[in-house]
Amino acid sequence: MARFTPAEWRAFVSGRVPRDSILPQSEASCSCSAHPTVEMVHSISYRGASVEANVAVAMERGISGTVALPSRAALIRRVLKHPRLMHYNRLIAFVLAANLGLFGYGLSGAGWWSSHGIALKAIATVAQANFALAIIVRQQYVINFVCRLATRAPTSWPLKVRWFLAKVYHVGGLHVGAAASGTLWYLVFVGSLTVSAVRGLGNVSVGNIVVSYLLVTLFVVMVATALPPLRARAHDSFETTHRFGGWSALVLVWANTLLFVSSQRDGASVIAAVSTAPIVWILVITTTSTALPWLRLRRVPITVEKPSSHVVLVGFDHGVTPFIGSVRPISRHPLLGWHTFANIPAPVRFPGGYRMAVSRAGDWTGAFIDHPPTHVWVRGIPTAGMANVRKLFRRVVYVATGSGIGPMLAHLLADEVPSRLVWVTRDPRKTYGDALVDEILTVHPDATLWNTDERGKPDMVALAYAAYVFAEAEAVICIANKKVTWQVVHGLERCGIPAFGPIWDS
20 to 30 A from 157, CA-CA: which of 144, 426, 430, 437? Predict the structure, then answer.
């Protein structure tokens, strides 16, 4: 099959060069098998009737020109871009490896376990430090600070550096690695505490042992329910276990810490022992970080616009204007059923406030659409979303399917970074309403709206690459369902193209 170079393709679809004057390239194979057809090229490059006519004539003549994906990157780069080795998993491995090294140091060089006694204070401090890291890295203020810091790099920096910085949203790997390490260290602490009590090596109270066993059981249950297969099948159970289990664990950790510090005070007063123990101050920081979002818990009025039975646009106007590209959790109940949605600027006709697009994707969203409330609960502060990495690139392509358009709307409407939109969805006007579609097209008149009701489902990797080439972009940002997102992101990255998408780590 004949293929165009990017320059030849742009010349062809713009009508400047006839197809017959372009010599076909060699059929060098590429394992990235997706190649957009002329029809796909038309959907990407439409600029007016002349282009449409040009493509129509080309198709009538049976011309099957395509834009070939580039050859895959070198083997080592392809290995590093494998989903199993994404930055999220690398951070998990890094934290686990660091803790394994610390365990080895305590076992040999530091002598934490010896015939004369066990360094219970050191073990307890390491365990609590890991839990503190797991909680702090999820703190909204910390997330915003880290994201703001990573995206401040100028676009003049080398692309590889900016590509690396744009993986900042994988920082959740620190949370998983630290939580798993903290649980393992707590198992070590409970075992060491039991051995010390049996051998009479230290002042270990019965209460300390009982609470420790309760805690380690709770930690194991929380880790088990957070495993991806279980979390995906029963997300509501995961949320309930994580939230109430986490709060229960925090109370038990305080009780256990006070019992432990009191029993290990070596003649000092209880007040002096508690006020000077590092584990206590780590716990203070952990507790503060946990409590902060809930101190901003509010019940706010909303308006609901229902363009179809598939989606509603929720309007907020309670004195808060979230920054562009932020997300926020909402719920119908203050303690349960929290779901995070992207904040969208209010349209010109409704100044002030912001919106969220809630699409039917499960029981909670279905009930919300069918029986919309008049008020919802919000907590914490608006938090930076994944698509904020756009700031690191000179030009980007946004690829969305269905309600994936929601997290992108703020970026699209702000139009701060030159971009091109590819939106694959069921009839967009029927599903999302004329007002929202017109709002998008006002800012991005050349956006590609692929109506799957009329045209079926496209090859998303091919479509994304064609838009990337035409827009002369530096990166692709994709928000779709998990399967499609990973197909696009990893399909492009193994060919050496910076691509980003959600990683479903919460």
Answer: 144
**E runs forming strands in 135-232:** none
> CA-CA distance, 167 to 386, in Å (whole number)?
9
- Phi-psi group of 362: left, alpha or beta (phi > 0 → left; psi -120 to 50 → alpha; rest → beta): left
Q: What are the backbone angles phi and psi of residue 499, rounded to the nearest 5°? A: -145, 145
| Sequence-distant (≥ 6) Cβ neighbours of residue 171 within 8 angstroms | 91, 137, 143, 146
Q: How many CA atoms lie within 13 A of 205 on its CB side?
A: 14
Contacts of 243 (CB under 8 A, 6+ apart): 335, 336
One-letter amino acid of 15: G
Please answer whether residues 185 and 127 qualify as being in contact, where contact means their C-beta atoms are separated by less than 8 angstroms.
yes
Q: State what percent of residues in the chain have pLDDT above 70.
A: 84
Beta carbons of 426 and 451 less than 8 angstroms apart: yes
Distance in Å from the first CA to the final CA of the chain: 44
Tokens of 171: 């920082």
- The vertex-377 CA angle with 375 and 380, nearest 5°, equals 145
Classify burial at 250, counting beta carbons within 10 Å of its beta carbon; exposed 0-12, middle 13-18, buried 19 or more. Answer: middle
CA distances from residue 333 to 302, 328, 438 in whole angstroms, order as listed: 15, 15, 34
Model confidence over 225-258: pLDDT tens digits? Answer: 888 888 878 777 888 888 999 999 999 999 999 9
List, for residues 66-125, the tens digit of each pLDDT value.
Answer: 456 666 666 777 777 777 888 999 999 999 999 999 999 999 888 898 878 889 999 999
Nearest-5° angle of CA 139, CA 142, CA 145? Answer: 150
Domains of the chain: 3-67 (no CATH), 91-295 (no CATH), 298-384 (2.40.30.10), 386-500 (3.40.50.80)
Q: Give Cα separations from 142 to 148, 289, 322 (angstroms).
A: 10, 10, 17
Q: Which residue has the tokens 């929202």?
A: 436
As a residue count, the chain comes to: 506
Find where tokens 């006007």 sit.
429
Question: Which contiguous run of DSSP H or E holds residue 299?
Answer: strand 298-305
Residue 166 host element (H or E): none
Across 115-146, b (16+ Cβ under 10 Å) vs e yields eeebbbbbbbbbbbbbbbbbbbbbbbeebbeb
Question: Please, how many CA atoms are within 13 Å of residue 110, restricted to the half-sphere of its CB?
Answer: 15
Looking at the chain, the number of H-run helices and the number of E-run strands are 21, 17
Query: Angle at which helices 6-13 and 49-60 pack, to 10 degrees?
Result: 110
Helix (H, G, I), strand (E, B) or coil at 377: strand
Angstrom distance (rounded) from CA 15 to CA 50: 8
Question: Beta strand 66-67 with 3-4: parallel, antiparallel or unpaired?
Answer: parallel
Six token digits for residue 225: 């329910």
